[in-house]
UniProtKB/TrEMBL annotation:
This is Competence protein ComGF. InterPro entries: ComGF, N_methyl_site. Signal peptide: none annotated. Its main location: other. It comes from the Bacteria. Keywords: Competence, Membrane, Transmembrane, Transmembrane helix.
Amino acid sequence: MKKIMNLKAKAFTLVECLVALVILSGGLLVFDGLSKLLSQEVHYHSQAKQKDWLVFSQQLRIELEETRLIRVENNRLYVDKNGQALAFGQLKSDDFRKTNDKGQGYQPMIYGLTSSQISQSGQLIRIDLFFDDGLERTFLYDFSEKP
């Protein structure tokens, strides 16, 4: 029995255990903080329609730059771009899109719409967009100021 008592088993000391716990808890706190930050960023970007609106309005302005107004009909804007007839508007889904004049092809420009309204007053086009989060935006474009 004396032989069993004299054997020294290798084990962790209390100080080593405390250091390991401090390192683990510090790592978990950093991970938790980064997770919360990432969650806030995702939430902010999913709620930031303003950025989407700015991209959309710039893209639509560039698309309409080299076009000629044909008509506004059935809540769609019809234009001619270098001999190609194009249409812009919201169909039955939640996006505003660019298609050919027959509604074929599909290039979404902005998502999250409940409704839109396109009106014409001479060469001035007004596009009102209503988003599902309550945001409302208006896009104006004057075709008469073309060079």
